[in-house]
Design brief:
The protein has 243 residues and is mostly helical. It is built from ten helices and no strands. The model has no long low-confidence stretch (mean pLDDT 83). Its main location: cytoplasm.
Length: 243
């Protein structure tokens, strides 16, 4: 790389860093992208752009840049740290903990990485506890509702339907099981929603994109049918035509 291009890349990187400090993450992303086009092997640019994408909540692109950083510089801790940050934001606490531990193995005793490990560990414990407790919380709510139904049937009706204790218990347990199932389903729904955070953005205009590609193909075929000639070639063809 020439000195002029290297200077331009460094200047774009500094502009991006300045935008990050001002929390202008989209503008920073454009500076980093321009710099990457000039120096596509610069791993620090991908790391910085990953952070910009992360703050823009573009988690798919943030993860892609983090993985590219690791691919270009596998012995650099920040690539794994960036990957862990994306995973933590997308509620993949176990994967985030693994990424942070890998970063810590490359850069031991780094306070920022150690704090991230503690944060991911706490989040993982809290998430697993929620998986265990929320369904039983739903069951508890179901028991309360079942008891309310039994009491309401006894107090507010002239002829109670639920007269046998076994029938009362069966109804209460049925509502409790329903509450448990609903809470379990809710946790499953939450997990599915979290997984979608790393999926690539949906292309809202696939037809227009396909039309543009078809236009490009047609233009290329037209160029092949009617190739361009230089002025000298055109004069030579004109002379041949006259003769």
């Amino acid at each position: 790389m020439s000195a002029a291009r290297e200077s331009e890349v460094d200047n774009l990187k500094q502009q991006g860093n300045a935008c990050v400090k001002q929390e202008k993450y989209e503008e920073a992303m454009f500076h980093y992208t321009h710099a990457i086009k000039l120096d596509p092997q610069n791993y620090s640019l991908y790391s910085n752009r990953s952070f910009a994408f992360l703050m823009m909540r573009q988690y798919h692109y943030a993860m892609e840049d983090a993985l590219t950083t690791i691919q270009l510089k596998p012995d650099w801790s920040k690539g794994y740290f960036r990957k862990g940050e994306v995973e933590l934001r997308t509620f993949r606490f176990s994967e985030a903990l693994q990424s942070y531990n890998k970063a810590s193995s490359l850069q031991p005793n780094e306070p920022r990485i150690l704090e991230a490990i503690n944060r991911a560990s706490r989040s993982l414990i809290k998430d697993r506890r929620a998986d265990q407790q929320i369904p039983w919380l739903g069951a508890g709510v179901g028991i309360i509702l079942g008891v309310i139904v039994v009491i309401a049937d006894y107090v507010f009706t002239n002829k109670p339907t639920l007269t046998h204790p076994l029938l009362m218990a069966l109804l209460t347990m049925s509502i409790a099981m329903l509450g448990f199932s609903i809470a379990k389903g809710f946790r499953y729904f939450v997990k599915c929603q979290r997984k979608s955070l790393l999926e690539p953005p949906v292309d809202l205009f696939p037809e227009e994109k396909e039309d543009l590609e078809n236009i490009d193909v047609e233009r290329n075929s037209e160029r092949e049918k009617h190739p361009k000639y230089s002025k000298a070639q055109a004069r030579q063809r004109f002379r041949k035509g006259k003769s």
